[in-house]
UniProtKB/TrEMBL annotation:
Record-given protein name: Diguanylate cyclase
Residues of the full protein shown: 188 to 436 of 444
Organism: Agarivorans albus MKT 106
Residue runs in coiled coils: none
Ranges for domain EAL: 1-249
Amino acid sequence: LLLKDGLSQAVEKDQLHLVYQPIIDANDCQIVSFEALLRWRLNDEMIPPDEFISIAEQYGLIRKIGQWVLEQACQTASTWAQRHPIAICVNVSVAQLEDDDFVDIVEAALQSSQLAPEFLHIEMTESVFTSDIGLLAEQIKALQDKGVKVSIDDFGTGYSSLSIMQDLAVNIVKIDRSFVERIDTNGYAIITAVMHMARALNYSVVAEGIETQSQMNTLRSLGVDYLQGYYFAKPLPIDQVEQLISAEQ
Ligand code: G
Ligand code: G
Ligand code: MN
Ligand code: NA
C-alpha cells in the first residue's frame, strides 16, 4: 500500500527514468533499436519493475505511467533518429492497450516528439490473450495503420502462443529468453519451429536473453533476424546510449 502511494506521485516527483538495451541486426551486428525499460528510484532505493509494474496495473496507475514512458521514449528516440535509423521499443500493459484512448496517446507522443511512426515499436506480452481478442486486434491494426510496429514479447511462454500467431497480425516476435537459455537442449527445436512459422507469416524475429557467443552463433545459424541480451549490453543509462550511438558510425 505504501508503494502504491509513492507510485501515484512518481511522475510528478520525477522519480521515474528509462534505461535502454540495444537490439542488434544478427547479420551485421549494427544496432537497430533500443528497448526502453522503466526504473523507479524511491528515496535512493531502486524498486524493481517486476514489483511496481504489477502494483501500477492493480491500482489503475499504469495508464498515467505508461503515457509518461511513451512520451519520454519517443522524445529520446527522436534525437537519435536525426542521426541514425534507430527505433525505440516500448513495453505496454494490457490495461493500456485496452484503453480507448491508447492510439490517440501514441499519436500524441509521436506528434510532440516528431518521431517517425516506423521508429516506434510497441511490445505487448502474451498475457494480453486473456483479454478481449477482437478489441486487441483492432488496436493493433489501428497502430499499424499509423505506421507503428507491434511486437509480441516473451513469445512462447503464454498458454496460447499458437493462437496469438493465428489471430493477431503483429510485425515482430520476440522469442523469450527461457528458450535461448536451453538452446543446447529442447530450446533448439522450439526456436527452429518458431522460425518456420514466423517466416511463413512474415514476422521478423528477435531472440532475447543472449548471454554467450555460442548462443549467438546458433541463433544466427537458425536465421533469427535480431538479437538482444547481456552478451551485447545490459540496459544502459541514456548517456551511455549516446556514446554507443556516436561510436557506431
Ligand atoms: O529490466 P527488467 O527488469 O526491466 O524488466 C522487468 C519487466 O518489466 C519486463 O517484463 C518488462 O517488460 C517490464 N517493463 C519494463 N519497463 C516497462 C514499461 O515501461 N511498461 C511496462 N508495462 N512494462 C515494463
Ligand atoms: O519481459 P521483457 O522481455 O520486456 O523483459 C526484459 C527483461 O529481461 C529486463 O528485465 C531485462 O533487464 C532482462 N534481460 C535483458 N537481457 C537479458 C539477458 O541476457 N539475460 C537475462 N537474464 N535477463 C536479460
Ligand atoms: Mn520487452
Ligand atoms: Na521478454
